[in-house]
Amino acid sequence: MTTNIDNxxxxxxxxxxxxxxxxxxxxxLAAADGSALPVFEAGAHIxxxxxxxxxxxxSLSNAPGATSYRLGIxxxxxxxxxxxxxxxxxxxxxxxxxxxxxxxxxxxxDAEHSLLIGGGIGITPMIAMAYALKAAGKSFELHYCxxxxxxxxxLEELEREFGDSLTLHFDDAGEASRIDPKxxxxxxxxxxxxxxxxxxxxxxxxxxGKAAGLPDSQIHFEYFNAEVDISGEAFEVYAETxxxxxxxxxxxxxxxALKAAGxxxxxxxxxxxxxxxxxxVSEGTPDHRDHFLTDEEKEDNDQIxxxxxxxxxxxxxxxx
Length: 320
Ligand code: FES
Known about the structure:
The strands form four sheets. Strands 4-3-6-1-2-5 form a six-stranded antiparallel β-sheet, covered by helices on one side. It starts with 8 loop residues before the first strand and ends with a strand. It has seven helices and 18 strands. Mean pLDDT is 93; it is low at 1-6. The protein folds into three domains: 9-99, Elongation Factor Tu (Ef-tu), domain 3; 113-221, Rossmann fold, CATH 3.40.50; 235-318, Beta-grasp domain (Ubiquitin-like (UB roll), Roll), CATH 3.10.20.30. The chain is α/β, with parallel strands linked by helices. It binds FE2/S2 (inorganic) cluster. Keywords: 2Fe-2S, Flavoprotein, FMN, Iron, Iron-sulfur, Metal-binding, Methyltransferase, Oxidoreductase, Transferase. Residues 7-108 form the FAD-binding FR-type domain.
């Protein structure tokens, strides 16, 4: 028994690999059979099948409309294995299974001005967005925050393509290089703010955007990893379609409790950021811990991320 997602995979070949820094590699992928890859929009990501039960999401960083996909991947020492394995095994000529692009992070193309802020490897979706905005002749600025110049990827391309629209912020370059998202967001009326990067950085930029007076509808973000606290009081879950009832322990996820009872939940990130494990709720009140559902969707309480969220009620009924 699984959640209902599109499992169609594409066999792809790594046509090129460039190591931009000592921990960021850039991969270009094409369809292994030579056919055109599905078109994508700025902000889209793909799943990469790293191994059995190991699927990771990466943003497409090239210009929308390209026939290949380009990924920038950080070899993250804190990763649970995905990026480390990709860095070790994915050389030019290697084959890999990927999903078609999905876009949970679309641009509002009618915005008066777009403020794109990428922290570290979170620059990748911002590059595709900057290309889309530039091609459409829209007003935008691109800010790339990195610990240092030597840790930053894509620099030559960004400077060449985006010129005056690009500002670089390096932590080791002193106070003058620091970004002030609140001032930037407040500077232009009708600004839409986009942010991607480490979760603490994103939380801070989002807060700054709110403090500048931007409504939630003008603040856009996509988390790629997050610290999730799955602990709490025990509760009961009834999996309606499977007709299985489980007790979810204080430090256990709903997905883990269901798996132990033979109900398999399709998962990917296991950190509440990708949306793969989202399931409908027909009874009870979820205690949302994910970064995927919007605030409005969370208030509706009719969906839940089974990998990390819990229950405020003593019992939940979920559609799996
Ligand atoms: S598996 Fe990614 S949100 Fe649950």
